[in-house]
Amino acid sequence: MPRAAHALTPEFSEETVIIRGVSYRLRELSIGDYEDLVKKATTTKTNPLTGEDDEQVDNALLLKLMVIRCSVAPKLNAEALSNLPMRVVLKLNQTVNKMHYGDEPESKPAEEEEVSEEEPKGND
Predict the structure, then answer these.
(1) What is the mean pLDDT of residues 91-103?
(2) Which of 56, 59, 61, 96 has the most C-beta neighbours closer than 10 Å?
(3) DSSP 5
(4) CATH architecture entry for 14-101
């Protein structure tokens, strides 16, 4: 029997965190989304002595952009995020960091159809 078709890519993980009685649902970013946000958080400065360009990622800005892009419900924007209490934002930051930079949770392989192994029947 043919094996069941497997999805080309796994589902994106989602996490719900409840902070001060409010439920925040966050979704993992695709690598394309992440790279787009890294570009937005990167600045290029020219060293006045050598004339060489130096790229620097503003990690604080990157994390804010990631929280905004990851938010599903409620959907956050820059203004809403800036109006949240500091410890709420820190918890959202921690959750987003864990989702993207932590280890992938252990998971079991997709169940495959079992192949019945019957004894071959020969001439008796």
Answers:
(1) 91
(2) 96
(3) P
(4) 2-Layer Sandwich (3.30)
**How far is Cα 15 from Cα 114, in angstroms, rounded to an integer?**
33
Hey, what are 65's tokens?
């952009």
**What token pair was written down for 97?**
């960091």
Tokens at 85, concatenated: 């209490």
Tokens at residue 59, please?
A: 């990690």
pTM of the model: 0.73
Sorted by where each begins, the domain ranges of the chain are: 14-101
Token look-up 């004894």 returns 119
**CA-CA distance, 12 to 88, in Å (whole number)?**
24
Q: Could you say which DSSP state residue 41 is in?
A: T
Q: What is the DSSP letter of 49?
A: T
For residues 81 and 24, is the Cβ–Cβ distance under 8 A?
no
Q: Which residues pair with 26 in a beta bridge?
A: 15, 71
pLDDT per residue over 25-46, tens digit each? 999 999 999 999 999 999 999 9
